[in-house]
From TrEMBL:
This is Zn(2)-C6 fungal-type domain-containing protein. InterPro entries: Sterol_Uptake_Regulator, Zn2-C6_fun-type_DNA-bd_sf, Zn2Cys6_DnaBD. Gene3D superfamilies: Zn(2)-C6 fungal-type DNA-binding domain. Residues 47-77 form the Zn(2)-C6 fungal-type domain. PROSITE patterns: ZN2_CY6_FUNGAL_1, ZN2_CY6_FUNGAL_2. Pfam families: Zn_clus. CDD domains: GAL4.
Length: 487
């Protein structure tokens, strides 16, 4: 623990609020790297009863202060009546008192009036951020859960997250991050660098439109989210919150981690990655490390959010045991069988690597079964996250171990072939595919190691070049010549 944090811990004599950034109370008029102006808050003795009771500083926002909003408590202010208030109230104004009518009737087209009545102004956010919220409501529930299968999770992502958005900076910026990344996923990498969105200056009395770079803004939202996650974890480790507050923050951390992971996947990548010389520097390895970190955090904090609104959100989708035995236990998937035989031939049964390889392969096989059972191709993408549970496997990938890469190559190919909802073909997986193609040619005299490698990449090219959409049932046959399935 560094010295600055120790000083903070010793001198703090108040109950800390949930972390708030200056982005919340002060509207940004320029989305460049320039710091937003921070309001200077004066101390006062007119705080709400909750803040007075806890002897913490109240920001005196009405009808609810910052602390009460974030803790869900009823915010009550004591009203001090002046001594002569009742006497003044009883005084009757003479009938002949002239009524002064200010001649300031504002036109309905007046821009300041429109601004005061706008939703974005009332919420203290820009029009761009309001559009991001609306877009999330449209796609978030189905994108982050298994549509038509886990209705509880789907409802949570669709309805609860927008509610949390209004009272949590962490959820707010995580939501902005994944939604702006979703917008970028509609463009190629080169185009995405020049996408500008019209915004509005909320501080001005006049509507002042200007543009922001969507790519830079997405990265900024992600950075803000990760910084807030770190702040939240410090508060938890410091044991500065009560049990209920801790559970709520832990749930928010898990949600934000997942949103950031999806944001990372959606961001466009260059088509040609000439500069990638080491696999450990790839986007996919970074994604696997992020996934592993999320899994560790979930293992650590997951049990603490039991019986909360977050408890069922991250529950995995299981195939009922009876149906699994009847349908999938003896299913022959061509590429899975090929990899099993390949590993058995190349690795001694007593070698510990045999277990690492087979475990990764079992994750891929399970993803195939889930895809077929739920008819939902997101499981093929998740297979890489499932493999990330084993840090030893990630380390093998970073070291460019050939067998580990071969398994991952097959997983990326399956995702590229079937997952038409991945929104962007040139995403995080394409970088690895190109790397593996070059790796194979360098190590096998310009050819593929075997016909199955060649065939499965043929499926990928057919999906990309001809935009041919294969039926999910074809998963069982991937690795056979693609020409048989193009009719």
């Amino acid at each position: 623990m560094n010295s600055s944090y120790k000083r903070y811990k010793r001198t703090r004599n108040y109950k800390p609020l949930l972390p708030k950034t200056n982005l919340d109370n002060n509207v940004i008029t320029n989305f460049s790297d320039t710091q937003a102006v921070v309001k200077v808050k004066k101390r006062s003795k007119n705080g709400c009863t909750n803040c007075k009771k806890l002897k913490i500083k109240c920001n005196e926002d009405k009808p609810e202060c910052e602390y009460c909003i974030q803790t869900g408590k009823e915010c009550i202010y004591q009203v001090k009546e002046s001594k002569n208030s009742s006497q003044k109230a009883n005084r009757k104004q003479p009938d002949n008192t002239p009524t002064v009518v200010e001649n300031q009737i504002t036109s309905i087209d007046n821009k300041p009036l429109k601004r005061l009545n706008s939703i974005s102004f009332q919420l203290n956010i820009s029009k761009f951020e309001l559009q991001l919220l609306k877009l999330y409501v449209d796609f978030g529930g189905n994108f982050l859960s298994v549509k038509g299968v886990d209705m509880i999770a789907s409802q949570f992502w669709r309805e609860e997250i927008p509610k949390l958005w209004s009272c949590s900076d962490l959820i707010k910026y995580a939501l902005y991050s994944v939604t702006s990344a979703r917008l970028l996923a509609n463009y190629d990498y080169d185009e995405s660098q020049e996408i500008y969105i019209e915004n509005e200056d909320q501080k001005s009395n006049l509507l002042v439109p200007y543009t922001i770079n969507l790519t830079k803004q997405t990265l900024r939202y992600t950075k803000e989210t990760l910084e807030l996650i770190e702040m939240y974890q410090l508060m938890i480790d410091d044991e500065a919150l009560n049990a209920d507050e801790t559970k709520d923050i832990l749930g928010q951390i898990l949600v934000a981690k997942k949103l950031c992971a999806f944001s990372n996947i959606l961001l466009p990548r260059p088509k040609q990655n000439v500069g990638l010389t080491r696999l450990k520097d790839s986007s996919l390895v970074n994604h696997m490390l992020v996934a592993n970190n999320f899994i560790q955090i979930f293992d650590k904090y997951g049990p603490m959010v039991k019986n909360t609104k977050f408890s069922k959100v991250f529950a995995p989708a299981f195939i009922p045991l009876k149906e699994y035995i009847e349908i999938y236990q003896n299913m022959e998937i061509f590429l899975i069988n090929h990899l099993e035989n390949y590993i058995s031939e190349k690795v001694d049964a007593s070698d510990l690597l045999q277990f690492t390889y087979q475990t990764a392969l079992s994750k891929l096989e399970n993803a195939c079964h889930q895809t077929l059972y739920f008819t939902y191709t997101i499981f093929l993408c998740r297979s890489m996250s499932y493999m990330s549970i084993d840090i030893d496997y990630i380390n093998l990938i970073k070291k460019e171990d050939h067998i580990a890469m071969k398994i991952l190559f097959y997983a990326c190919c399956l995702s590229a072939i079937f997952h038409h909802q991945s929104f962007h073909w040139d995403g995080v997986y394409n970088e690895f595919l190109e790397f593996y193609v070059s790796h194979s040619r360098e190590n096998f005299d310009g050819e593929w190691e075997d016909d199955v490698d060649k065939n499965i990449y043929g499926w990928v090219k057919a999906r990309s070049k001809y935009n041919h959409r294969f039926e999910l049932s074809a998963i069982e046959h991937v690795g056979e010549p693609v020409e048989y399935f193009l009719n």
